[in-house]
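Q: What structure does this chain adopt?
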Amino acid sequence: MPGYVAIELDKPRRLRFDINALADLEETMGATLPAIISGGVGIRALRALIWAGLRWEDPGLTEVRAGELLQVHLERGGDLAEISKAVHDALAASGLLRPGLVQEETSRPNPPPTAGRGASPSGSRRRRPSPTARSGSSPTSSGA
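A:
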């Protein structure tokens, strides 16, 4: 397997994902790859994936230009399903999506709050008493 997938945009191109491409993608999207692809890929993510996957042979490519390439593809009769399949195939060809290689953030449940860390045993947070609610400081206390 060559590690890339041929894709027709403005011209024949080769989509390839490596560690640097995926790191750039995650930085740009502000999320991990599993989080990006787990909820269905929207237009913004698809454009970012194309940008990240083409930069290895077109280092000056911008996200805006990647969007323009997608638009050219559509105007020539292509569809986004073809692009999505090419992205999927290129990610698979990268070898970086093997189980266990990329930790899936969405599979880790948030642990419940523990007692002693600001939470009651029922899991709800306890409020601290206000300074005026402390014993001996109420306005009705005479102290004499």
